[in-house]
Amino acid sequence: MNLLEQAGLALLHRVDPERAHGLALMALRAGLAAAPGLVTSDRLRCSVAGLRLTNPVGLAAGFDKNAVALSALSRAGFGFFEVGAVTPRPQPGNPRPRLFRLTEDRAAINRFGFNNEGMEAVAARLALRPRDAVIGLNLGANKDSADRAADFATVLAHCGRWLDFATVNVSSPNTEKLRDLQGKDALAALLAGVMAARDGLGRPVPVFLKIAPDLDAAGLKDVAEVALASGVAGVIATNTTLDRTGLRSAHAGEAGGLSGAPLFQRSTRVLAELYRLTGGRLPLIGVGGIGSAADAYAKIRAGASAMQLYTALVYGGLSLAQGIAEGLDRLLARDGFDNVAEAVGVGNGDWA
């Protein structure tokens, strides 16, 4: 991180977190944030569920909810990025304040509640997307929908022609009863509808399933079985947690999903167990608490074919993406791996 980025982060941390988030997006679009362009090497290039990535470091959904910074993000050093979550109709989300920095814990709590401008507005921006990036969309459901399961398919049918991949997000804790859709029967029915919508696109857009880190052993086993049977391209593990163990910040008691460093151990254990349950047959994307190249490497060794980050950018700046990718390249070289795929799952037993 250079001095300009340090100064920018210091200023952003002096204002309300949600306003700071908006200012960060404005700075990115204005060309005032890190823009290293292509970050790649022979070791970093990889293929995940048919997606050809320049590197395995992705940006998780939530940073660019409304797809307003696609061109800028395509130059930010990520191998892929995900926008959204997007619902069929616009919705304001939950009342403010709904985003909290937990600086002492290098974490955040949010209870946004799928605030977004709706699929019509987002589709119009995706239609103008840069073609040299790998872009996914996080699919969501309206809070007041009479059929939340159908909402996911509706968004994919409307936006799918401009996507490289899509993610079914049934793991946000901020929409009442949304996580109930992770139950075996409900999830199987939901995914059947989404896959039917995908088949109607006329091209094979990979669909990922994003799960919560708070599933018990039986719930995780059910998810693995449904994922393998449904035809999804892979699983993103994990979303935010409701657990508050060990937090020091004064905001620790706020309602919502916790992300950032405290989530690393929990999310990686879920990732590793899912790798075992699926026998390595399904690509996994590791998310939760990644703030360094060592963290990213640990996710790969636990079973992830790629990874995503978001909250760490609050503390490390946008240049963190480039730093993690380049650091990961060095770690792979140190251990004698010629590419990312060779390292996937080699340390899974460390998380048993």
Strand % is 15-25%
The count of helical stretches stands at 12
**CATH class category name:** Alpha Beta
Radius of gyration: 18 Å
Low-confidence stretches: none
Structural class: alpha/beta
Helices and strands, in N-to-C order? HHEEEHEEEHEHEHEHEEHEHEHHH
Query: Please, what is the average pLDDT?
Result: 95
Number of domains: 1
Write down how many β-strands occur, each being a DSSP E stretch of 2 or more residues.
13
Largest beta sheet: what is the strand line-up?
A: 3-4-7-8-9-10-12-13
What name does the CATH topology carry? Answer: TIM Barrel
Main sheet characteristics = 8 strands, parallel, barrel
Give the name of the CATH superfamily. Answer: Aldolase class I
Which word captures the global form? globular
CATH architecture: Alpha-Beta Barrel
Helix content: 25-40%
Distance between the amino and carboxyl termini? 35 Å
3D architecture notes:
There is one protein chain. The chain has 12 helices and 13 strands. With 352 residues, it is an alpha/beta fold. It has one domain (3-351): Aldolase class I (TIM Barrel). It has an 8-stranded parallel beta barrel, surrounded by 5 helices. The longest helix is centred in the middle third of the chain and has 16 residues, at 184-199. It is globular, with a radius of gyration of 18 Å. The mean pLDDT is 95.
